[in-house]
Design brief:
This protein is mostly helical. The chain is built from two helices and no strands. The protein starts with 6 loop residues before the first helix and ends in a 13-residue tail after the last helix.
Length: about 80
């Protein structure tokens, strides 16, 4: 059932009474929203770091396997002297 707004509803909404503060909308707690966003960002960075480490490790293992499958006997990585 829809209630029709009458003139008394419009008068009450038009001006606040003198001496009373106008009601402001309650502020939503934005700390919870930020906490969730920061937690999501941290999780994304951790997953990205693990993925990067895993990709490098798998690439190194693949290069080692390619070297061994080609029949070489010395496939160790040679570090340049500093």
């Amino acid at each position: 059932m829809i209630k029709a707004s009458g003139p008394s509803d419009q008068v009450a909404m038009s001006k606040p009474e003198p001496g009373l503060k106008p009601r402001s909308s309650p502020k939503s707690p934005s700390g919870g929203n930020r906490r969730g966003a920061i937690a999501g960002l941290i999780i994304a960075v951790v997953i990205l770091g693990i993925g990067w480490w895993l990709a490098r490790d798998l690439t190194a293992a693949s290069k080692m396997q390619d070297c061994l499958m080609s029949g070489r006997s010395n496939c160790n990585v040679i570090e340049p002297a500093r």
